[in-house]
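Feature request, filed as a ticket because there's no other form

It would be nice if the structure record came with a short human-readable summary line next to the tokens. Right now we just get the raw output. Example of a typical job, pasted below so the devs can see what we mean:
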Amino acid sequence: MIRYQGFTKRFGAITAVDSLSLEIGRGEIVALLGPNGSGKTTTLKAAAGLLAPTDGTVVVGDPPRPSTAAGARRAISFLPQRVSFPDSLTGREVLDFYRRLRGIDAGRSDAVLRFASLNGASNRLVGTYSGGMTQRLGLAVAALPQAEVLLLDEPTAALDPDGLCAFYGLAVEIRKDNRTVFFTSHHLGDVEQLADRFGILVAGKLVALMTARELAERLGQHAIMRLAVDRDAASILGAVRMVAPHAVAIGNELRVQAAPPSRVAVLDAIRGAGAEIQSLATEEPRLESLYKELVS
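Raw output as currently delivered:
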């Protein structure tokens, strides 16, 4: 449904995306992760036909067409990172405008208003909406055409809890219909439970492509266990380093970087050294640590 082949986009002397090759199939939900400025929005806009490649190709739909072709645009619906609508229109009027623009049946407006939890505010002026409500209206507009491919740029960044529920509901609906979602994010948050695969873009280059399980395992290697023991932790550090070589001791606390499969061995090493564990906490890893590892 979406295929990048050697896609490169330059803006003058700046290379925003460098030789990206990525294929996303029908029925997949794929997230493109990366720090701010990594090229995620440029990549998504190229699939939406809003940017032409400097080099390489981007095709979308079935049958595949160049993303800048008019026929390809009929196959996609795009939600930009920042959405805005005229303050003087109501939510329903905004939806009806886009619905008529794409020749969609009138009943679809009611369906997407319910899905976006906006049916109670549909007759209010957009100028009275909160930021989260405006983002939900954007999701409703993107959901209107039931397109083969849905492109969402940072869809969770400004969403309130109702908006997050709407986003999850939209993703589930699209998966059931065997359609495709490609969305960007710079943090995991709650989106990891939705995506089938994750691409990681750093400085314009695709540095990794992995399944949700592979990503969880990779991140788990960076988790830090903080264990308080009943004695000076330095006295048992040697035993712990037999299973976790990079463990450190600070007062009565051990700090151990340990992937999930090795955590039981760490606990056994502490007990085997005769110490009692008084408390245990785990610091979940941040994506930034994985970015650094992938480009080092």
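Something like this underneath would help us a lot:
DSSP finds ten helices and 14 strands in the chain.
The first helix runs from residue 40 to 47.
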